[in-house]
Amino acid sequence: MADINPSTEFVIHRVQTEQDFKQWIPSLARLLLICVNDDSYSSLGFRAPLSEAKATEYWESLLSSFVGPEANSVLFMLSRASGPGGNAVATVHIASQPKETHAHKVEVRKLLVDSAERGHGLGRKLMDAVEEYAARELGKTLVLLDTSTVSPARAFYLRLGYREWGTCPDYSTNAAGVLHDTSFFYKKLACQDPGC
To answer: N-acetyltransferase domain spans which residues (predicted)?
Structure first.
């Protein structure tokens, strides 16, 4: 497993092997449980109360997305440098599109931060790492994402320089089962290719 952007307090990890991924599944499942069950406004694809078994099953179902010949996503986890290995306090992944006409972009999925670790700038650290990796390693020039319009995440993405290009009424339900509008965002990345 490669560690990138280490700091004195937190370290960002990127999954590269099946063994790496399996090591992180218990803490990824715990993180998903916290974000779904503790935040009724969250819109992460699950209803509360989310069970540990269902959270674990979700992450296990993504193995081929992160590792192997069919992989189209890159998973980042952030842990405390002083803590045990494999204990994620935040995570995010990016997915590429298989279509040739969409090869220039990635989509941000499941930015999760442990509620006990919020306020340390972890979401920003992960998003900075994702953008740098997408541009430098994958040659991408556009990042897309969406979030609930009423979520604090909307203001967070605006602060990071994402542009809101539209909203869809009643696009999804939150963890409590209430319909909400969803905001869609994009951010253009600086081209890292010397030929630009």
So the answer is: 31-191
Q: Show the tokens assigned to 151.
A: 């979520």
User: Tens digit of pLDDT for each residue in 27-63?
Assistant: 999 999 999 998 777 889 999 999 999 999 999 999 9
With b for 16 or more beta-carbon neighbours within 10 A and e for fewer, the 71-94 pattern comes to: bebbbbbbbeeeeeebbbbbbbbb
Residue position matching structure tokens 């339900």: 173
Give yes or no for a contact between 186 and 163, defined as CB atoms under 8 angstroms apart. yes
Which residues, in sequence order, are CB contacts of 13 under 8 Å at separation 6+? Answer: 1, 2, 3, 4, 20, 24, 76, 77, 78, 79
pTM passes above 0.85? yes
3-class DSSP state of 94: strand
| Tokens 């010397």, located at residue | 194
Indicate the residue type of 196.
C
The residue with tokens 């990042």 is: 143
CA neighbor of 95 nearest in space, from 77, 110, 107, 103: 107
Task: Read off the tokens for 38.
Answer: 């503790």
